[in-house]
Each structure stands twice: as C-alpha cells, then as structure tokens.
Amino acid sequence: MKIYMIILDGAADRKIEILGNKTPLEKAQTTALNQLAKNGQETMIDVIGNQITPESDSGAMALLSYDPQIYYPGRGTLEGLGTGFIPEGYNYVAFRINFASYHESESRLDRRTARGLTDEELQELAKEINEGVDLSQYQIEFKLLAFGHHRGILCFYSKEKQLSGNVSNTDPGFKKEGVWGYPVSNYEEKPQKCYSLDDKQVSKFTADLVNEFEKQTSEILAKSEVNRDRMNRGEMPANYILIRDGGSQPKQMPKFKEKFDLTLSMYGQLPAEKAIADLIDAKFTFSKSLDLQLDKDFLENSANKLLEDKADVVFIHIKGPDEPGHDNEPFDKVKAIEFIDQYFLVNLLKGIEKDDIVIVTCDHATPCELKLHSTDQVPVLISGANFEKDGSTRLDEDTARKGKCKIEKGIDILPYIIENLKMC
User: Fold this and answer.
1) At CA 102, angle to CA 187 and CA 10, rounded to 5?
2) Which residues contact 394 (CB under 8 A, 6 or more apart)?
C-alpha cells in the first residue's frame, strides 16, 4: 500500500463568468480526476484556517499534517535553509526578494516585472549586487541568490550582531504580521521603508540594515548595463529589489517517520519545500523550474518517478495552475488542469496498485478575480479501495461541498487516512 499526495498549486478558484459561471476545475475536462472521484470521497477544507492565507510552503506544511500556526518560521527562513544558503554558526535573518521595476515619476511599481528577465540578466544583476553592496559599517555580511526569473533569497548574517525577522516588508503587495505575509490588493505603488514590528533594538537594527541595503542596491541597479540595455530595447528595467517574509531560527519539528511510522518522499521546485523535507527528515527531489512544469515529458516522467519511488508516502507539488490565477487567465488555468490530468494523472493511474491511495488537493486557492492567493477553502479528494465512495463523479468545488469526507483542515488529511486504514 502506498499513499500518493498530488498538490495542484492554486487550482481552486471562484466561479468565473467567461467560463459559463464555472470554476476552472468545473470547466476542465479531466478523465483521470473523474476516475479518481468515482472511487473516492471529497470535501472542502481550510488549508490552514484562522483566516491565514496559505503560501505554497505553509500549505505544504499543513497538508503534511504539521500545523503552520505552530511550526511555520516564515518563508525567508525556509527558502534560505532550502538553498543551503544560511551559514552555520552565524546569527542570521533571511528574506524572499523580487526584482521589480519602479518608476517614481509615474508613481508606478511593477512587482513582478523581472519575469521577463533572462537567466543571464538575472544572474548578472545579482552578481553586481553581491560585489557592490558594502555593509561592513554594520558588521554584517550578506548573500543574495537569484532564481526563477525574478525571485531570490537574501540572507544577512553575523557572528557579532544579533538579527531579527520581525521587521516589515518593503514589498507593498504583502503585509507582514508575525511570521505571516498577507496579500494586499489595493496597495500604494511604491516600495516601502522597512521598520521594526516590535520595540526591540535588534529589530530596529535589522530594519535600518534593510533600508541601507535597499538604498545601495537601487543605486547599483540604476547604473547597471543590463538595465540600460533593457530600456534601449523598450523593456522595463529591474531597478528595485522588494524584500518580504523575513525570518530566522525555525522550531524543531517531529520527524515524519516517528510521527506516522511511514517514509516520505517529496517532489517540488521550491527551496522552501526542501527545507520542510529536511526539517521532518524526508527525501526531497527538485522538479523542473516553474516555466517547465507544463511539459508533456516532464509530467509523464514525474508520474513514472512517483510509481518507482519506494517511499510509503510520495508527495508532489505541480505548479501549473497557479500562474494563470495570478495573471487572471481563466482559460489558461483550465488548460493547465487538463494538461496535468492528461499527461500526469492518466499515466499515474496506469501504474498504481489496487490498494494504493491517491489524494488530490491544492496548497491554496488562487482566484483569477483576485490574482492573489486567498483564504478560500479548497477541494480535497481521497481515492482508494479502503474508502467509502460518496457518489462524487469529478473533482471541483461544488462537488466537494456535497462530499462525505469528514475532515476540515489540511492537517487532518493524513491522520484521517491512517486512522481509516487501521479500521479496515
């Protein structure tokens, strides 16, 4: 018996008029998902709950049964740990970053402009910053790692100075409260100053450090030949770095094997997911980069890898539906779901054993109308011979609301399955 956890990133949505007042999951033609639904049970769940908007890392943590309200240290920490970017033996704080384009004279900020950067351009900009910023006056060292078109990780570290993750974001698109980042829909089109979120001197020091880093990077990016060439071609410059989700030391988490007496193997593309795997002592395999997730060969090969994996539980996070949600492209989101069904799930179902269990759900919703992650509930399907069929015929939000599965949150999924198996 083997448990497969299939995470369709951001697939959950709201009804959309141009889709005939259907959600993308309702609109999609899904042979394999329909087959799984007919052999299982469904419900709608809160990925985390308490009106916390899940990100892919906190969502994955919850779906693996670890309550993010207890264990989540912040995305910056997880990204830093997952890249092996945080030096051992140092005090540190790590942040997520976006290369963005800010036009002060027009009061216009494009937070994700640098999705158009080539990898060569992105790496050259990162190199200029790593070589050009000087924080010696603060007795601080830093590293910046850029990846994924416009994303990156920034780590400040020191043996002399204490550092805090309890500082605000300079990215106006997300507000930070504790370890959580909350999306802001109507934000000021301007990078924000960083400030401490408590009265501690270490937080104030870290905020000053962030502001100095922002000042120096803006000066470097303004003079960069990469950006001059981009503007000469009529493209927007990547002239500003937005910082968010600061965090430092994570809490110790129970090992997955000790918790369930099962082995776990995870497949994903996010360094934060690798960090979670490391913290719970699971095997992790990096998938292709985000722009190659909807590739026929990749999806077919991924299905084969999961079938060949010897772990008791195999977890895969497939990014495809999320980006069209952020871009308000409902038809592209439908196509992404159909593509995953056709080339990943169909091939997976050809190889599973009769007593295997397949879970399909989402790490969060990304409603097209919002172009952001939301606290909306997401559907979950549990399919397998040991589970009572509830009459579902497909996986979508309306069907799941009528389902008979008795779980309410992401953390409930694996305990529910394991308890059910004990009763069989």
Assistant:
1) 55
2) 30, 33, 34, 37
Question: pLDDT digit string (tens) for 144-194?
Answer: 999 877 889 999 999 999 999 999 999 999 999 989 988 887 888 899 999
Sign of CA dihedral 99, 91, 74, 4: positive
Number of H helices, E strands in the chain: 16, 14
Q: Please give the C-alpha separations between residue 238 and each of 94, 188, 220, 234, 246, in angstroms, as whole numbers.
A: 21, 19, 11, 13, 22
306 dihedral zone (left: phi>0; alpha: psi -120 to 50; beta):
alpha
Identify which has the larger pLDDT, 234 or 255: 255
End-of-domain residue from the set 180, 213, 247: 247
C-alpha–C-alpha distance, residues 395 and 390, integer Å: 12
As a whole number of angstroms, the distance between CA 362 and CA 31 comes to 18
Residues 214 and 266 in one domain: no
Q: Cβ neighbours of residue 25 under 8 Å, at least 6 residues apart?
A: 11, 12, 13, 337, 379, 395, 396, 397
CA distance 110 to 38: 44
Q: Rounded to whole angstroms, how far apart are CA atoms 396 and 379?
A: 6
Q: What is the pLDDT of residues 285-303, one digit of tens each?
A: 998 654 545 789 999 999 9
**224 and 92 co-located in one domain:** yes
Q: Which residues contact 158 (CB under 8 A, 6 or more apart)?
A: 90, 91, 92, 139, 140, 141
Whether residues 259 and 241 fall in one domain: no
Number of separate domains in the chain: 2
Q: Any bridge partners for residue 12, and if so which?
A: 365
pTM above 0.85, yes or no: yes
Last residue of a domain, one of 219, 247, 275: 247
Under a CB-based contact definition with an 8 Å cutoff, are residues 31 and 337 in contact? no
Element (H, E) at 95: strand 91-103
Asked whether residue 282 falls in the same domain as residue 238, the answer is: no
Are residue 67 and residue 104 in the same domain, yes or no?
no
Write down the H helix ranges in 72-118: 75-82
**Cα dihedral sign, 394-400-404-407:** positive
The reply to whether 174 and 270 lie within a common domain is no
User: Among 420, 308, 275, which Cα is nearest to 357's?
Assistant: 420
Average pLDDT score, the chain: 93
Find the domain containing 235 and state its range: 78-247
Max Cα separation, the chain? 68
Q: Are residues 167 and 209 in the same domain?
A: yes
